[in-house]
Amino acid sequence: MKDDRFLIITGVSGSGKTVTSRFLEDLGYYCMDNLPSKLIPSFVKLWSDKEVEIGKVALIVDVRESGFSSEFAKVLKSIREKISPRVLFLETSDSVLIKRFSESRRPHPLSKGRSIMEAVALERKRLAEIKNLSDEVIDTSQMSILELKKLLTHKYAKKRSIKLQVMIVSFGHKYGVPLDSDLVFDTRFLPNPFYIDNLKDKTGKSPAVKNFILNSAETKKYLVEFLRHIDYLMPKFVDERKANLTISIGCTGGKHRSVVLADVLRNHLKDNNYSVRVNHRDINK
Hints:
- The chain is an alpha/beta fold.
- The protein has nine helices and nine strands.
- The chain has a five-stranded parallel beta sheet with strand order 2-3-1-4-5, with helices on both faces. The chain has a four-stranded parallel beta sheet with strand order 7-8-6-9, with helices on one face.
- The termini are far apart.
């Protein structure tokens, strides 16, 4: 029986090994890219003897390593005497590979003095034995990144699902938009408590400020559309297997309107069983 705690990812260049590596990290795998074949047995011993605190491993190996095609086949046979790694071979059609290399403008690892077609053909020839030794061949020719992620999730996430972590940041535009924002919403058009004498020096945590903002007809109308938009987007991010999402809500100083709406959004998302944290970045400025 194959041990899904130890994956070896290989295949033709441009088939999606980098995307696979990044997503396996999200699934809890410790990923190593382009580890020389001769070092793999040493790592296997450390892992199997539990001398390294690594639960799940994914090694990404391919023709970037000099002598890979001859060395790896021998190494794989030797390590299979100690553990039962699962070897995934990613495959893609020639036409798709040519399109991907042309669009990315990245050179094929074997393209020195060769056309893309010649490099692809040579790589397939060198990988033929390794492909035959693989436990599974995945053809990514017609797969989107999302479809590849769903396939990997089905195979290797087991019962564990990736929990989307949502960070809501309230901020003041005069201090700058948070650089890690995925979504940014501007609330400067809403009624501003700053111009109300008894509210000016309070924050969006004050019940009086909350009542002023939330009882505004403009705010009530906006919240309907705002929350509807959020409810539409959230399942999309979940389906995309996004691990972290930062929603930034800004007003002029980050003290009143953005704070109130950030708290409203937090409560709304929590009611819908999302994992949410809030950072009122500029509330005390």
